[in-house]
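Saturday, quiet lab. Running sequence design on the structure tokens for the scaffold JK sent over.
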């Protein structure tokens, strides 16, 4: 059992004196005056117990009604099993180096004219190719070699030059796009080289759960770098379709917190807001413009105490007196 002060002032108001009431209160504090106002009983343990029980009941009740909000993990295995046609079509674009990742530019590739600029500023190029990605090697051929799969097809692929490899892959990707339902089994015959066998082998490894580790393997027991897996997923349509269904795309203002990834994405709403402004969201360099705007706003926020007029708003709009109205009424 303990006692707490009921009223906000820590000392009784001192009589007006030289220096005004603020100076008088300061002197009273320095003099060590004891509080002589009202006191009331306060049972901290009782409040804590009630709080834990009430909150616990609410949490258990809501969990029982709504269930867990966590979505199952999306990986290459779930993609291969849920949408095998899309997986094969995407793998063929990775081999042909026409996917979004292959043509993104820095930090993954050196694709010409792929960067966003703001006047003479080209931050994307200044960052350089920090995470080099060769989509054909990183997403297809190297994992197949690690898993000892489709070796004859890989030998044919390796024996061809880059021009022939791109021709095979792009022809197969186009044929899949024209096939009924995008089914690789219904692709018309053509000159596709080893690409059908390679993509089919890659799909088989993905469906049995071996491809995730082969692509994101870091040479250790545990994998913490999912960059390549996420890029591969993002190049297809399966992953973006899931985002659309969960209302997570940019035009839907959606966000989802990842388990264990504090604080999640709730702070991104302001970034997303600017993309909804047609004059900004429709720009070819919208990403760079939004980052620039957020940087400017951050600087202005930091400079609020030094900007005349703006720094006086709390005094001119005394919301604090509304919040602490009991204290100011007594004062």
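Result came back. Writing it out in full:
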């Amino acid at each position: 059992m303990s006692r707490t002060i009921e009223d906000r002032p820590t000392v009784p108001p001192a009589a007006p004196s030289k220096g005004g009431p603020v100076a008088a209160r300061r002197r009273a504090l320095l003099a060590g005056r004891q509080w002589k106002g009202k006191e009331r009983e306060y049972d901290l343990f009782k409040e804590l117990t009630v709080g834990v029980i009430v909150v616990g009941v609410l949490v258990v009740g809501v969990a029982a009604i709504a269930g867990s909000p966590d979505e199952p993990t999306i990986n290459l295995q779930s993609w291969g099993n849920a949408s095998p046609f899309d997986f094969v079509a995407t793998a063929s674009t990775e081999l042909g180096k026409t996917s979004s990742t292959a043509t993104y530019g820095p930090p993954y590739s050196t694709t010409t004219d792929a960067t966003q600029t703001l006047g003479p500023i080209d931050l994307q190029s200044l960052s350089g190719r920090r995470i080099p990605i060769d989509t054909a090697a990183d997403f297809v051929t190297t994992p197949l070699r690690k898993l000892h799969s489709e070796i004859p097809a890989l030998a044919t692929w390796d024996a061809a030059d880059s021009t022939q490899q791109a021709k095979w892959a792009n022809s197969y990707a186009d044929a899949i796009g024209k096939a009924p339902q995008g089914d690789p089994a219904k692709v018309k015959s053509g000159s596709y080289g080893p690409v059908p066998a390679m993509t089919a082998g890659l799909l088989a490894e993905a469906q049995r759960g071996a491809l995730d580790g082969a692509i994101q393997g870091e040479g250790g027991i545990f994998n913490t770098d999912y960059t390549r897996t996420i890029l591969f997923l993002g190049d297809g349509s399966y992953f973006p379709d899931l985002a659309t269904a969960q209302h997570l795309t940019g035009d839907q203002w959606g966000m989802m917190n990842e388990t264990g990834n504090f604080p999640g994405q709730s702070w991104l709403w302001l970034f997303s807001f600017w993309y909804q402004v047609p004059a900004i969201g429709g720009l070819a360099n919208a990403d760079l413009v939004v980052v620039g705007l957020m940087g400017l706003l951050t600087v202005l926020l930091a400079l609020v105490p030094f900007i005349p007029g703006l720094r006086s708003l709390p005094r001119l709009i005394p919301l604090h007196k509304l919040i602490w109205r009991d204290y100011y009424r007594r004062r």
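Notes for JK: Residues 264-331 form one domain. Residues 44-66 form the longest helix (23 residues). Ask whether to fix the surface positions before the next round.
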